Amino acid sequence: MDCIFCKIIDGSIPSRKIYEDKFTYAFLDIADDVDGHTLVVPKKHIRDIFDLDKLTSEHLLTAVKMISQHYVEKCGYDGVNILHASGEAAGQTVFHFHFHIIPRKTDDNINCWTNFPGRKKTLDEMLEVLKIN
Ligand code: 5GP
Ligand code: ZN
């Protein structure tokens, strides 16, 4: 399979590894957008959240939490943003499931939230569309 993250995991493409265990691989994102931008991926090729199984999600979130805690407790950061895209419509560009961790410092002036266009429907209209049961 021609997947860039699978190639990073098997070592055929080099990466700057932050952490690895049996199920998870974490490495620095090559984008030059923000210091410490980290990607956390399952070793198993999973396309997106719709393809994600319970066990993998548990391993992955455990690693995301551990790395986030490490950044805050040992690396001088004050918080993290955790970002994710599933599906082309959501802006996913690499179709191997991943979380982005953005380490944050107080007053770093990084805006991790997009400029949303403003809500067009009422909350009750959206509740009718989205609620489960
Ligand atoms: P997405 O847009 O799918 O949420 O995120 C994909 C991320 O993968 C991007 O932030 C991009 O910079 C990163 N990326 C793409 N190719 C490579 C690569 O070869 N090495 C590393 N380290 N990151 C990559
Ligand atoms: Zn893959």
Topology summary:
Layout: H1 4-9, E1 17-20, E2 24-28, E3 38-42, H2 54-74, E4 79-83, E5 99-104, H3 123-130
Antiparallel strand pairs: 1-2, 2-3, 3-5, 4-5
Bound molecules: guanosine-5'-monophosphate and zinc ion.
Key terms for this structure?
133 residues, alpha+beta, 5-stranded antiparallel β-sheet, 3 helices, 5 strands, 26% helix, globular, binds guanosine-5'-monophosphate, binds zinc ion
Describe the model.
With 133 residues, the protein is an alpha+beta fold. The protein has three helices and five strands, in the order αβββαββα. It is 26% helix and 19% strand. The chain has a five-stranded antiparallel β-sheet with strand order 1-2-3-5-4, with helices on one face. A hairpin with a 3-residue loop joins β1 and β2. It is globular and about 50 Å long. Guanosine-5'-monophosphate binds next to β2.
Structural class designation: alpha+beta
Oligomer: single chain
* Strand numbers in spatial order across the main sheet: 1-2-3-5-4
Provide the gyration radius in Å. 17 Å
Total number of beta strands: 5
Detail the poorly predicted runs. none
Report helical residue fraction: 25-40%
The rough form would be described as globular
Count every helix, treating DSSP H or I runs of 4 or more residues as helices. 3
Q: Which strand-content bin applies to the residues?
A: 15-25%
Terminus-to-terminus distance: 39 Å
Tell me the series of helices and strands, N- to C-terminal: HEEEHEEH
